[in-house]
Amino acid sequence: xxxxxxxxxxxxxxxxxxxxxxGFGWGMRSRWIPLARTWVDRSVAAFRSSEGADNHxxxxxxxxxxxxxxxxxxxxxxxxxxxxxxxxxxxIGLTPEMLQTVQLESFQKSITVPAVxxxxxxxxxxxxxxxxxxxxxxxxxxxxxxxxxxxxxFQIRLTHEDLVQAQTDFLRTLGELDVEEREIKRxxxxxxxxxxxxxxxxxxxxxxxxxxxxxxxxxEALRLHGLSENQVEQISTDRRLLRELQVFAPSIDGHDExxxxxxxxxxxxxxxxxxAFADHELRKVHTAPLILQELTVHKGQSVNAGETLCxxxxxxxxxxxxxxxxxxxxxxxxxxxxxxxVEAIFDQPGARSETVKGLEMAYLANQVDTETRTLPFYVxxxxxxxKDRRAEGNRYVEWKYLPGQRLQLRVPVEEWTDQIVLPxxxxxxxxxxxxxxxxxxxxxxxxxxxVKYHDQHAVVIANDGSLFPGDxxxxxxxxxxxxxxxxxxGGGVxxxxxxNH
Length: 501
Known about the structure:
Elements: H1 2-27, H2 29-62, E1 81-83, H3 86-91, E2 99-101, E3 104-118, E4 125-129, E5 134-139, E6 146-147, E7 152-158, H4 161-193, H5 198-224, H6 229-238, E8 244-248, E9 260-263, H7 272-276, H8 280-285, E10 290-295, E11 302-303, E12 308-313, E13 317-325, H9 329-338, E14 342-347, E15 353-359, E16 361-364, E17 374-382, E18 385-391, E19 394-399, E20 406-423, E21 428-430, E22 433-440, E23 443-449, E24 451-454, E25 458-461, E26 472-474, H10 478-490
Antiparallel strand pairs: 1-23, 2-26, 3-13, 3-20, 4-12, 5-7, 5-11, 6-10, 7-8, 8-9, 10-12, 13-17, 14-15, 14-20, 16-17, 18-19, 20-25, 21-22, 22-23, 24-25
């Protein structure tokens, strides 16, 4: 009796174990069914391939020319294998660089927002104005021309009465001070000999000190009029009034007091590297030419102090202004905190587009636009020269990116590590199934895969054993190859069938 009960208990335990195993297998079906299906497909394909090879071998023994049809590729005619001619590969763009190995990499889930190229506030636009009243005597640059930093732009004959009077007073004081110095020198010898009383020499020294104080005040007055220390010293040395103003292209990254120079009677352009900008380190900071965008004066025109002469543009680096929607603001802030780079997508003629990767986010605005309900944010856009030519002694430069260009920004909002990432053209969809085409010798095997995520640019494939790192897959043309497989397995009759060229 005990033996019978023991056997019954053992059978019950086995039944429970089998039920648990079956339940576990059913729960894990999403992982082992694709693996089993792939294994079966590959086994069947291998079996058919070997069977076809044996048949060809027997046919070759019977007929040495049988099977040597260079226009057909028998042996790979199963439903999951496709062999393409060299012409067919080129037709779908399947070049050697489009055959790449599967690798595990990081994938960034992203959002796409509209954007426009804009100027950098306070950096791109440089307004050149005259600090003194005068008449334009020469205009050395043309509108649209590219100019280097320190290039002579304008010459202005000064007509500012206050400046002329200040220079005159300064020169008069210099002359009086020279007279006092000579008189003091003469009286010093007479005082030592006793011919002149010492009080007279002391009075002359007091008068010299007063003139020196007045000269210092007049020197500062000239500085307030816009003259540099070197220019004031030039007046003191040459004892001549400065009559003409030279205006040079200013520096973007710094300021030099000699961006504007005053000259005397004889006017000679001053070389930028030698005199106008003596700071050699400053020259290394910015080397791109400036574009003279707006020229607002002409020769013979009278200009007042502070009036704009021209507007220069520095296009070496611009901003991209993106417009994030309210629901994307938190994700955008996270991308900024993580320091993730942004991609810019420029539309090109036809269906192509240019993608600029690795752009750094500059900053997010602190106010939402009340009309569009969007948050502006800004991305650095390094620019490059596409054309640099000279015509009739003038230089003209064309930049690749220009303010006003519209584009799209792809901003990462989430990052996944160790993922299989393929282009969208590498995956074909048919109903609920997704396929990629793996290179296997001279033909391609269709491999079913599970797509975890996809957008308009990339597809994330589940790492479930369907593909392994190191497998070579076609990075484009998956849809065309899927259509070719369908036509081969059960499509209409090919009108060119049998016409082997």
